[in-house]
Description:
With 451 residues, the protein is α/β, with parallel strands linked by helices. It is 43% helix and 10% strand.
Amino acid sequence: MIVHGMGEQRPMDTVRDFARAVLSAETLANGGKTQEPEFWSRPDGRTGSLELRRLTTRKSQPSEAFPNGARTDFYELYWADLTGGSTWAQFGGWIRYLLFRPWSQVPREVRGAWIALWIASALACLVGLASILPDDVFPTWARIALAVSAAGLGALVHKMATASFGRVVRYTRADPANISARAAVRERGLRLLNELHAGGEYDRIVLVGHSLGSILAYDLINYLWTQRESARTLRGGGEELAAVRDVHDAAARLREGDAASVEQFRRCQARLRRLLAAREDSLDGAERWLISDFVTIGSPLTHAEFLLATNAADLGQRIETREYPAAPPVREPLNRLGVWLAKKHGFLGRDAKEGELFVFPKQGGGWCLHHASPFAAVRWTNIHDPARWIYQGDLVSGALSGKFGLGVKDVDLSRLRGRSRSFSHTRYWALDMPQEQRDALRDAINLLDND
């Protein structure tokens, strides 16, 4: 399920291009010749719109997770129709919010763009002032030319801003005028994810978010996990609790820059999610959790202190108070009974006097993962392309493990295939991408769910 980014995308354009790129990557990886990938477009009522369809493939070759092969369906969460109509005043307010902040609160990686935005704003003000200067200072013909140019440029910027960046304003800012649009987008996404969980048709869901769509997808995982308390309440004769214990221990061993500890953590996440997905369940799927992977591509979450919070300290506090989930999940201190139960079930050593966990004993027996711990079971891969000189690479994207936890696997494309020479924000799944980038995309999507 792919969530598109900002702009005026047409329904199905994003998912069709993405499926073609992913399936081409699979074909090449399996030693096949370069050819047009095979998939079919089918109506599906779960999409919530007659404009949308699902793309489906043949069964794959057998794999470790799917001995009989697996069919892959591609869905698009289309939401551009729900966030149009941002006014110039709303966009201008958002720009002022970005500009008028202390230098210390501007992230180092975007300071060049911040300075460029200030210069552009200053030039626009100078052009406006020049167009109203008296004749003895500025000739009439020059003032008219400046006024016409400024009007034309303003109209163009207004159209581009409200169509593209206006959607950033409509979704990321919790202003009274935006609340209904934000709610409609999230409700559409949650409805689709709940319907994919129901019926027992699917074994797993890979959720992919591009650009602004990665913020929406992040929110959907957060809200869905919160709502599905039965799915995060452990059962299964101790096997699920043992899997959570492994996640807990692997999270404690995470080290910055240590790829081996990250991979171990991801294997433990996969084991827990497979147990939650394999449960026998009713038709509504309320007892199961199917989202196995969260893949962010060109994600502005790297600027979360700009977009989701006031500054870096505010973002950290929101994560600590479990408003925003992290990978690994934030742990909470246990009371005396919790410490005793944690020692009894192997989370803490026998001599421990206190402890912190992201799973809690429930009244009446059993254990439950807390509401901000989806990344105990969901692997998070972030593909980004560092920028240089603003226009090279992808200024929107960046690493996330430093902000959302060491369990996030950052994939730096510049280290795999070299620096981009042009703006690459819209080229993460271009068919002519380098082989190294193709492999990174294939590994992140991991259609056959291999460890």
